[in-house]
Amino acid sequence: MKTPKASAKIISGCGLLILSLVWLSCGSGMDSDFEGQELESPASGFDLSISDATAPNTRITSKPRVGTNSSTAKFSFTCSAGTCSYHCALDYGILEKCASPKTYKGLGEGPHNFSVQATASGKTDPTPAFYNWYVDITPPETNLDDSPLNPTINAVSRFAFSCNEGGSSIQCKLNSQDWKACSSPYYPAKWTPTSTVNAPNGRIGATAVWSGTEMIVWGGAKENMGTVYHNTGGRYDPITDSWTPTSTVNAPEARFRHTGIWTGSEMIVWGGNSYNGAVTTFYNTGGIYTPASNSWIATSTANAPDARYLHTAVWAGGDMIVWGGVRSNYTTVWTGGKYNLSGNSWTATTDTNAPSNRSDHTAIWTGTRMIVWGGYGAGDTSNPTGVYDPAANSWTLVSASNAPAQRGRHTAVWTGTEMIVWGGYDSNRLNTGGRFNPSTNSWVLLPQTNAPAPRELHSAVWTGEAMIVWGGFDTGAGVMNTGGIYDLDADSWVPTPLKEAPSKRDWHTGIWDNRRMIIWSGVSDDKNVKTGGILGLPIGTHTLKIRCKDPYGNLDPSPVSFTWEVSEI
Asked: What's the pTM?
């Protein structure tokens, strides 16, 4: 039972003691770790009478942590007189003679107090040194709040967990790996390189789509955008880690900065440009590639939109909708067209209420509407969000209230209910973004805490639970091989792993294959790379263990363990 005799408070390095008298002693022996905190008085028996200036000052030189899980406490102390005798007390107990170091063992859980007072040449320090600390030997408990389905096809699955003690840290152990610091939410994943055997030449400005079984890449240009352009491509099977070249028979002319979409059974590429050293050619041609037969059919040019590049394209169920971009006179446009696959025919999109002319924008398909956002252009961009209804052939402009800052060269993904945009460039590279809900026509800004560094020319995919962004370029950092996972439920960011990540690059391709993120090619230090990487756990059984560590150093002795299977189907 504590029996305090008085109350003391440290103020700016001065000790203020309130008893039946008041004194102020600057430079006192009270321990500075508790400056500004209420401290109890030392034990009864200390000499607290006012002494002259020759009295020694007492100072504690080593001590336990303020919070510790050790039941043993060791204190070292000294005095200003050089040679002193000391009296110590534990937890306001009986004053007793002591020497430095002083050790106490078998301490119970809870708050503790140590006091020491020096005496030299008959003079006693009127301001004993105090130290308060807390012993906690009870380990924390770990709670698993969210885990993936078992089995699951998602190789970048979400875990959420918590501790029953505030201020605790968390450690995770995946399979046979060592324990390492982690935080909630957590996405256990690793990088695996893609094969380069039979892979297409490295390139920039290519397109990539996911067919359901393969990633199909096509087109692009050599890194310096000189006179080397490609009408070649390849199909990558992540299960067998193998490449198959796409046919060049009847393939569209070589180009880059075109668009590519997947219909469910074919890939359609359209638009783009190329340069032969003298003339830049802009295209309003395209091709339909069928992987089952490894064959191409040209898209019609009758009533097709003007030739252009840096436009967007989405698949709307039966039509490909292209919009915006830069045409042959190097001006941006606000026009577009709907390409009907079954009829091999074009219909113009209306210009009425269309967003202002632009390029380097993004477009996503909601299932019923196309949403266009951002980009560069000479027109008014005060209402940068345009919603196009192909059934009605009509545009609706949405207020920019609370929208992220205008930009281009960003990325956009569709979650099923919201469009998320992130990164890009205005006058600087950005690491900001926002979520647009077309049901309410409203924006919510993304957090910047723990967000990846600012960048443009990166890639982004939606996993079904989170948005992954990776790679890109910033003037200060150059090309990058870093990224982040934005967790929608937690509205927070966690970094992508760096271990075994693909080499730094920008202007690469990135797709989600319904289980993993696959990135490929791009440019690194002004050179094309034909390498790539897969982010996700391999197919098979995995075990994640999670344990909490409280601020006092106690570890949960019974970590949470979850075993699940990442399956092919």
From this structure: 0.86
